[in-house]
Design a protein that fits this description.
The structure is a homodimer.
Chain A (H helix, E strand, L loop, with lengths): L4 H6 L8 H11 L2 E5 L4 E3 L7 E7 L1 E7 L5 E8 L3 E2 L1 H5 L8 E4 L3 E7 H5 L7 H28 L4 H16 L3 E3 L4 H8 L3 H13 L3 E4 L2 E4 L1
Antiparallel strand pairs in A: 1-8, 2-7, 3-6, 3-8, 4-5, 4-7, 9-11, 10-11
Chain A binds a DNA duplex (30 and 30 nucleotides) through helix 8.
DNA sequence: GAAAGTATGTTGAAATTTCAACAAAAGGTG
DNA sequence: CACCTTTTGTTGAAATTTCAACATACTTTC
């Protein structure tokens, strides 16, 4: 597990926990690492919601596919971030989305009940970890607020600009990469790909943005 | 505070805490109760995100108003439920939405730092409360997933039916009341009121639903 | 480096939503 | 009960989005 230390130090779950304690905890938690190729399903809709995932390398998307096969991208987790923690913490039966690797990815899986229901009173690191988990859940909540703010806009143009503004803030620069190709961006924003492409072109012509592949710039 | 005991027992924050401990904790937490008339603002966008709110009576809505004045209803909290807990727990600067009373409401306000940063190691009830708070954050997360699933549908009809299906599940009956009037429902679903009214009429004619004011039935 | 496959941009027609305006119904108030 | 206000339903025109189809650019594979 040593080779993952650098990523794990960045993971919100282990904030404030020293390396040597972290490594011991991983054993105690029964953490295991699995590799998934691009496009592979890490957790399928309907699976038991037992595990918290941590992205050690690569990236994953939470996908919601409806009755008619329409894909909606709910969220993205990148290196060092967690996923599926809300489902595991809420102790619901099964997970309502699928988690897909969008690149070859190494994923750490931890049975959430090991975090919630083991030695909660004795071990200080454990308390810290539960606190970290709570804070992370709150942060994810806020991210949902942001996503709702973006997708609740009525037009493709407004959704796109709202999303790019969020990215700009996150990146701390007017120029940044987004984690989506055009079809994925459309599925994330809840709009039509062709209309999205048209809108991007229009905004380029108007001199509002620059865009090339996944790189965007707000002018 | 005794007169609020019945509601507070139902509040997810105090689950598993006996009445006598609960009352002592309220003092320790510095909980206070305020009354708000219908349409009054409990927390305004931009306010410091210090407080967790608990609805003792009445109901509140989380409202997001954009630059152009378009209203979007993010969520509703009813009797016994919490609000603003994610903002407080994430310890962000200021709250990005407004919380409005939709009926005359009694609201309990608790400074979240009193929950997170006081006697966390000594007091068992306190540990329980933090655990409850975490679980509630996870549940709210899942509710956001549900809302996204509803609002990510492309047509007014699909959004409405998806929302009504969620209500049906929650109510455990094909007939139920929704917490919105027509304009509010439109602002919650992210559609036009007139189009929504038209769609409701259509679904009634087709025999798919019954609807009268806030009461709906799925046929 | 050629071939196949994937991603992106473009376009016009069809469908849907938004907008504005009004009428009818319901609710609140003196 | 009459008046005023708010809510809801309806409608048609304008704007926007979706859909389908195709051309081009870019990637991957052999």
């Amino acid at each position: 597990m040593e080779k993952y230390l650098e990523v794990l130090r960045w993971c919100p779950l282990f904030k404030g926990i020293a390396d040597e304690n972290l490594l011991r905890m991983l054993t105690c938690l029964g953490a295991r690492v699995e590799f998934f190729d691009k496009k592979y399903t890490i957790i399928a809709e309907g699976d038991k919601a037992k595990f918290i995932g941590i992205v050690l390398s690569g990236a994953v998307q939470m996908i919601n596919t409806d009755f008619y096969g329409n894909r909606s991208i709910v969220a993205v987790s990148e290196k060092g971030e967690m996923f599926s923690e809300a489902f595991a913490c809420a102790e619901i039966e099964s997970i309502p989305v699928s988690v897909i690797a969008t690149e070859p990815s190494e994923i750490m899986l931890i049975n959430c009940s090991h975090i919630l229901h083991t030695c909660t009173n004795n071990c200080g690191f454990h308390q810290q970890m539960i606190f970290n988990l709570m804070k992370n859940l709150a942060v994810k909540n806020i991210q949902f607020h942001q996503k709702l703010e973006v997708t609740s806009k009525r037009s493709t143009r407004e959704k796109l600009l709202a999303y790019l503004t969020v990215c700009e803030k996150k990146a701390g620069s007017t120029s940044f990469d987004i984690p989506f190709d055009r079809q994925e961006l459309a599925d994330y924003l809840g709009v039509e790909r062709s209309g999205l492409s048209a809108e991007i072109s229009k905004l380029k012509k108007e001199g509002v943005i620059n865009a090339d592949k996944k790189r965007f710039e707000l002018l």
